[in-house]
Known about the structure:
The structure holds 2 protein chains of 2 kinds.
Chain A: H1 2-19, E1 35-39, H2 47-62, E2 65-69, H3 77-89, E3 94-97, H4 106-114, E4 119-122, E5 134-140, H5 142-163, E6 168-173, H6 180-199, E7 204-208, H7 210-215, E8 227-232, H8 239-250, E9 255-260, H9 263-276, E10 288-292, H10 296-303, E11 309-312, H11 315-331, E12 338-340, E13 343-345
Parallel strand pairs in A: 1-2, 1-3, 3-4, 4-5, 5-12, 6-8, 6-9, 7-8, 9-10, 10-11
Antiparallel strand pairs in A: 11-13
Chain B: H1 2-11, H2 15-18, H3 22-40, H4 47-72, H5 80-97, H6 102-125, H7 131-150, E1 155-156, E2 173-176, E3 179-181, H8 184-201, H9 203-220, H10 225-250, E4 253-254, H11 262-272, H12 284-303, H13 308-334
Antiparallel strand pairs in B: 1-4, 2-3
Amino acid sequence: MKKRFFAVVLGAVMAVSALGVVASAEEVTANGDYTFEIIVKSYQSSYWQAAVKGIDSEKEKLGVTANSNGPNAESDIADQVNMLNDAIAKKPDGIGLAACDQEAVLDSLQAAKDAGIPVVLFDSGVPDAPEGSVYSLIATDNYGAGATAAENLYEALKDKIAAAEAPVRIGEVNQEATSESITGRGLGFIDKFAELATADGKSVAVVGNEYYVNNCADAGDEASADIIIEVAVPAQTTVELCATEASNIMNKEDLIGIFGSNQVAAEGILTANGNLGILGSDPETSVLAAGFDAGATIKAAVTDGTMFGAVTQSPLAMGITTVDVLTKIANGEEVEDVPTEGYWYNAETIDDESIAPNLYD
Amino acid sequence: MANQNTAVAAKKKSSLDKLGGQKFIVILVIIALFLFFSVMSANFRKYTTIVSILDYSYYIVLMSIGVTFPLITGGVDLSIGTGLICYSLVGGYLISFHNFPVWGGMLVTVLFGVAIGLVNGTLVAVMDIPPFLVTLCTCMITRGLGAIIVGGFGITWPTATQPGGWFRNIFKISIDARTKIPIGIVWVLILVAVMSFVLNHTKIGRYTIGIGSNKEAARLSGVNVKFYHIMAYVISGLFAGLAAIAYSAVFATVQPGTGAGFELEAIGGAIIGGVSASGGAGSVTGSLLGVFVICLLKTGLPFIGLQANWQQIITGLVLIGAVLIDVIKKRREVH
């Protein structure tokens, strides 16, 4: 267990320096015995396992104290606000926060500012944060990450689309239509796919969940479109409802590709496929699925070719960067926002050293 | 007095009751829903869709069989939903991180459910705390406890191709990628038959009904009310544990912090199936049928293109309808 932990940490440091996600991890040194309070969004996804690992490895490396905490679920907004207020009361040298809710934390951010405690946001931004309270935002470019999935899926499907005589369908399962991260990915996928298809002379229509239809670049006209992108959002963010919505789309004969925009949605697609058996990696004989994030099930499906590929964020890098940026602020250095990328991986690249450390179980 | 009332009630038995009561209506509703969705959507009337409906219903059916017992005592068990996730997390954690054999993890999962059932039952029956409060507390406790025990992270039980993946075949046998036999329905039906027998032909069942219809009378006639009252909650916990195994076998990753709301589908199913909202009456077969109504709605409504939030509204309306039938029936029997 311990050995594995150090292997992961080592891999993380290597990956981070290799990818240049952090300007340079080596440059950061702590000029004092700092204490930071870091609050993650939830423990609802194994996503946070990697982020907390990043935080823990970097705090040991820099010799600072970083206490991580977080509510049970992303919907436990009040719990997280309480944790944030407790963190402010401890008067740490800095606070790292992945906010569950963009509105609920506003008063606390003002309180942190009044108390002179710098806040670094990671994973998700707070657009209306009081001026001067947030020093840096470290987050995946979700819109770009969704577009990455669309680029890879379109590349694999474009010959089939070009040769198609009847309209074809692309599915998208999003676990909700409210958070900045999920809607960003969903819209990024839709807009990029539509852009690429339009450039090749095909017309695109977006149907299904109203939020995505109304907020995408161009919803098109279903009656005349060559490609129909159908977006499904379940009533609750549970895997069985995602699976039901995915089953519905995956039963349609004209489906050629499908995208699940987080771990729950991608696993819902795989659960539905458990009965349908239509997914694979050859566009001529099967439907291609693109996932998001990782976890044992998605990794296994990508490895055996059931899932064509997936986009991973770099939670490890995000955890490491959060501690780095907090340390820099405590040192009195200037900091900026740090965007982190989404990386496409498939059966060939899943074991690459730039990818593997981000693929938590 | 009581005898007179019973006699009057018996005389006033409606034509509906002669046909099998609420269960008869529920069967008609199931058939109607199935036909409606089949006509409306070509994709719904596929074998794979039926297998999917069954897959996603096992854990709700199992919870529903168990929760029928506390409901019949006039109580409720709100801890089964978050409990299910908690037991599944702990069992999966022991398998994945402590080299437990799969059967060992399954055993812990079920025993954990029984233990929480025992706690619920003791607090309700011995300490006389209202069941709603007791199980609301254990609902919150299990929600947090599962996350703490496993370290707050999602847990994946062995996948079908990993060592130990055999347990996923308990509920579904794969012939090939597109041909599956939903064998789980056989086990569910056997359990329904067993628990129907327990409810109708054993002391545990008869005293459960006795506690629900008139607890004081049961106590005065020498029944160890406390013991049988506890047993109702132990049965509920046991079936929440079995439901946890069904859930782990069908779905990929079990996420801490989820599970709240599962209990409402199980309780809603039981009430649609004719368990009296005030206790004293109900059947295990009714609960099974009621859950199928909820699962059909859950799966069918997306197939006819209805957006997600309408599904919840329609399920709520069906539930109100079921409770109204119960209330109207009772009023007719009294007057």
